[in-house]
Amino acid sequence: MNNEPMNNEQSGVRESSSSKRTDLLTANPEIVAALRDRYRAILVDEYQDTDAVQERLLELLAGDGAGLTVVGDDDQSIYRFRGATVNNLLSFQKHYPGTRTILLTENFRSREPVVTHSLDVIVHNPARFAKDLFTRRGPGSDVLLVYERSVGEEATALADLLRRLHSAGKIRRWNDVVLLLRSVRSYAAAYADALRAAGIPVVVAGDATLFERDDVQQLVNLFTFLGATQLTNYELRITNYELRITNSVSWACSAGSSLPSTNTPGRAPSTHSWTISTCCAREGWTRLSSSPRTPCG
Hints:
mainly alpha; Rossmann fold; 4 domains; two-stranded parallel sheet; two-stranded antiparallel sheet; about 5% strand; extended
């Protein structure tokens, strides 16, 4: 699920789309019957983040719920600002009598101080299942809270704390330290600047959404090319990445050549841009060239 907040227009579009699907099924019981026959088992993850419209859509598809399984964490319901309601999870047994509930109470990731302090906070939340969390990982370092008035002040305080812990030998290697942020795009810059100012090396990861990453964009371009049988002037460019095409892109072409190597043994991969003409989809062959817009023929 995307963690970036939506504006009112985006939220409205999402709600409208879900409502249209629900209205379609409500008005066409034959479609509902066909879908129920096709999807005998339904699994929904992150159920605490569903909204009322999605709940109604699921009711139409799942029927009496005999083949329905949902997974959710009532202690992680944080998308109320998007219309999500944890009540969908809490009232599941009421909607589907005979439901078997399995509580997963063991924390496999954290040590005792983290689990204990977390439970001390969330136990006061009335909208949750009563459960006691525990871990088998044993004791560990206690939790230290650093709280300042702004992101910049907090980043500076954190950098100073890390520097002092490193000087005291509590932190041996900088790459043993990981900073998790609610939003990398919104907050990473302040922390990175403060850490660099303190002489602490910084590597920022995840500062873009998945489909904005350069490597993913190039993969999207590749798959677009492979399926672009109707395009005649589409160019595929793969830069700074090693690309292996099995079967000479035979999915798009009936015959072709493998992508030639631009690397020399013992040397680092070179930066190169290749153009693959999609006229191979018509002519049954492909031309690979380092020159753009190579004609087929």
